Amino acid sequence: MAGNTAVRKEVEIVKGHRLDYQLYRYFLQYFSESELESIFESIRRPPGRYYIRVNTLRISPEELMRLLRERSIDVYPDEYLPEALWFPVKGPNKIPSARKYVLADKRAAESVYVGANLYVPGVVRMDEEIRRGDEVNVIAPNGEVVAFGIAEVSNDNIKTTRHGIAVKTLVSVYEMPKVREMREYELGLFYDQSLPAQWVGHVVDPKPNEVIIDMNAAPGGKTSHVIQLSGGKAIVHAFDRSEGKVREMIEILNRLGMNGLYRVEVRDTRYLDIDRPDLIGSADKVLIDPPCTDMGVRPRLFDVKTMDLVMAMSNYQRQFIKVAWRLLRPGGILIYSTCTIPPLENENNIAYAEGLGFEVIDISIPRASGGLIDKYKNSVVRFYPHVHDTPGFFIAKLRKPSQRHQ
């Protein structure tokens, strides 16, 4: 870790990952310097297992595994979750050098890094002389070479082409099956979802006829899992503030064959008690997976995070918790999850929820860790990139007491 941090505004924990000094000092209250390095070194890489969730409304895990193995695809069942299958992620690989390059945006580069093709919307710039069929390197915005492949479009056409593959990836730093190009994906037989996110559905534990509100539902992974686990018999309300994301979510849910099994609306759910007063006191369960600093998402080639951002996110997240209290019936359950690491967005928000009157329900998950703050050591769940080789993740479960404390 670099030199005289006391006079620097930012600290580079590992290559490409920087924290402002205030956030760096904050993290040192919970992690040693070597642990911080291990966390962010893991964030730069994908997990060793890439997980999908079998859509058991359409196919059994055994049958899907058989279909995939018939095509010589390496796929394995998870040791604990029956609907979870995983593919081994291979790498790192040495990338052949090409004389021409295509610059991808950050999000696209991180997908190509693990073997995806580069699609036209992810292209920032192409070498002028690139013609269809040329060998090219795909470069991330930080200059890192993430793949070698073949150009599927010429530079002349890139500005007028809106869709399709720009570069067919042949060698990437890490590789795994191109799951979204599988016919089983198109047929809605599975949804690609990380292991910790799949555990959230089981913590929700949906039952037939329960009213369940997903306050931050896009892109639909947890919503679809709740529908699946309830056998399509729960009354599921899914909300997101972005119209584009809601459109995408409807497409995903319909691909999974869940038409008619959910109600979805574009709403900023911080105001759901005002916009939908009919939902006040109606919910058996509320799921909050709010916008967060995403510090557990893998792989991330580079990132900068600040204490101001963490504090702003924590305050933003609390607005959803406050509204969830009003939406839940007495005795109703709140499930809170994030894909980030700072306690301010996790354990501290559970303490805030307790201040509103919520009671924490102890949960434990095989292979996961407990809370980072002593008070929640045995009651909430954390997944760490460097310990569990998953995305960084947090899950908690709370109850609104039967006696109202409003």
Describe the model.
The protein folds into three domains: 50 residues, Alpha-Beta Plaits (2-Layer Sandwich), CATH 3.30.70; 73 residues, Archaeosine Trna-guanine Transglycosylase, Chain: A, domain 4; 206 residues, 3-Layer(aba) Sandwich (Rossmann fold). The strands form four sheets. Strands 13, 14, 15, 16, 18, 19, 20 and 21 form an eight-stranded mixed beta sheet that branches. Strand 1 and strand 2 form a beta hairpin. Helix 7 packs across helix 8 and helix 11 packs parallel to helix 12. With 406 residues, the chain is of the alpha/beta class. The protein contains 13 helices and 21 strands.
Task: Summarize the structure in short.
The chain is of the alpha/beta class and 406 residues long. Helices cover 28% and strands 25% of the residues.
